[in-house]
Amino acid sequence: VEVDDSSLTQAISTLRKFLKDSTKSPMFVKTVPKRGYQLICSVERTTPLMSGEVHEEEKLELESSETQEQSKVEEVVETSIAPKPADSAEETISTQAATKSSNTLVTKLLIFLAALIPLCVILLTTPAESEFRQLGMFDNTLVKTPINHPDLTQWYPSIEQCVKKYNETHLERLAPVEVIATG
């Protein structure tokens, strides 16, 4: 059976990640330069074969490959791989789901607060009311200006003309109660 290099590399990488095996000081799979990969730990079968029988040819092949592997390995690290129970995998998945769920909840809570804070500021604070000074009465309309504005006395004739013209052109509507001139 032929396997392309990238598939093999990816499979070994996945195996190392699952076993938490580093490439610099491996405990399970060692990279042999220009040759491939080498298993450097002992392996024990934990489940019987499906048929319950091992064919003689398979036994011979298995034994010959084991002896070849043993001769290639100069230093064998004696490590047994204990199978993980299914419960721990389920716990990992449920822990990841709970973490993801709590992250989603925290994100939603932060978005809600980010929207709520400006809304509270707008609704619960009252803007400072501007203070006005009275400029005069033109055509029965009170004219005011903000206190912090410069003097508008030179504009009185223009303001008076504007108020009168507005009242003349809008006879059918109500006259303004007050006018605020800002210069």
UniProtKB/TrEMBL annotation:
Q: Highest taxon of the source? A: Bacteria
Residue intervals passing through the bilayer? 109-128
In its UniProt record, which GO terms are filed under biological process? phosphorelay signal transduction system; regulation of DNA-templated transcription
Annotated DNA-binding residue span(s): 1-41
Q: One Pfam family from the UniProt entry?
A: Trans_reg_C
Ranges for domain OmpR/PhoB-type come to: 1-41
Q: Which UniProt keywords apply?
A: DNA-binding, Membrane, Transmembrane, Transmembrane helix
PROSITE patterns with a match to the protein in the record? OMPR_PHOB
Q: Where is this region: Disordered?
A: 51-71
In terms of Gene3D superfamilies, this protein maps to: Winged helix-like DNA-binding domain superfamily/Winged helix DNA-binding domain (1.10.10.10)
Q: Which GO terms describe its molecular function?
A: DNA binding
Where composition is biased (Basic and acidic residues), the residues are: 53-62
Q: What is this protein called?
A: Transmembrane regulatory protein
Which organism is this entry from? Vibrio sp. W14H6
Underlying gene: toxR
